[in-house]
Design goal:
single chain, alpha/beta, Rossmann fold, 6-stranded mixed sheet, 4-stranded antiparallel sheet
């Protein structure tokens, strides 16, 4: 098992934001967090990565307790967090942004170059713009750069916070296709995403977060067919049939068919 949380609580000031969270993410698995704005999804990711200290409970990663470990240690173990809002270094070049992703491992320059070339192959839109200032990229290109920078750290667990936020539908499709391909190549992925329908369509499992607590969990398909999830998060009415019908439209249909066709290992 890659990640296991047991009764994890954390927050800011004198107030807890997440309460008694139990959660697991296994190798080669996409786990999706869905919930309203302010439900605690981002705080949960920040607590796992060490940006927000936990107050109670445990975080175990590959058999090692890490709730007291600094963020740098968690990164070296393979936990990489791509935060909401991209947060690239806009005054640096694309290449320099990627290089910063490899810094935590203090790699030799030739190793970093090889990793950067691998990432560039995965993101063709960045390959020809390596020397360009990152702030000149479009929103979609900046999101690809943020993910690419995370991959430079060679993660075992990749945590993505709202990767499709503000992107055009075509780029949203590319982001979700990328997430599926990363899972199939061996990564464990924890995905926090406002687009509940698309994220559940590609998820192996999901957790519904309400008021900082786990309200519901199940496979991605089970949650897509859940009346409670449909009513609150999918925007498709109260009937199970409505959820299935809506899945047959646009990007959701493509992703749904993709997930059905990908063999599990």
């Amino acid at each position: 098992m890659t990640l296991e949380l047991q009764r994890l609580s954390a927050g800011y000031g004198g107030m807890d934001v997440i309460h008694d969270i139990d959660l697991t993410v296994r190798p080669r698995e996409i786990v999706t967090l869905i919930g309203a704005n302010g439900a605690g999804k981002s705080t949960l990711l920040k607590t796992i990565s060490g940006l927000t200290p936990s107050r109670t409970g445990t975080i175990t990663f590959n058999g090692e307790r890490i709730e007291g470990a600094p963020t740098a240690t968690r990164m070296r173990l393979g936990i990489v967090h791509v935060p909401e809002g991209r947060q690239i270094f806009s005054g640096l070049s694309v290449s320099e942004n990627l290089e910063l992703g490899a810094y935590i491992h203090r790699r030799r320059s030739d190793e970093a170059d090889a990793q950067r070339a691998e990432v560039a192959t995965r993101f063709p839109m960045l390959r020809e713009r390596m020397l360009e200032v990152a702030g000149n990229l479009s929103g979609g290109q900046q999101q690809m750069l943020a993910i690419g920078r995370g991959l430079m750290s060679r993660p075992k667990l990749l945590m993505l916070d709202e990767p499709s936020l503000g992107l055009a539908p075509r780029l949203v499709t590319e982001i979700f296709d990328l997430i599926v391909s990363l899972r199939d190549q061996g990564l464990a992925i924890l995905l926090s995403e406002q687009n509940a329908q698309l994220s559940l369509a590609i998820a192996d499992r999901g957790y519904v977060i309400e008021n900082g607590r786990v309200a519901l969990t199940g496979s991605g398909q089970e949650l897509l067919q859940s009346k409670d999830v449909a009513d609150r998060y999918l925007g498709v009415g109260v009937r199970h049939e409505s959820s299935s019908a809506h899945m047959e439209n646009g990007i959701s249909r493509r992703l749904h068919n993709l997930m059905r066709s990908v063999p599990k290992t």
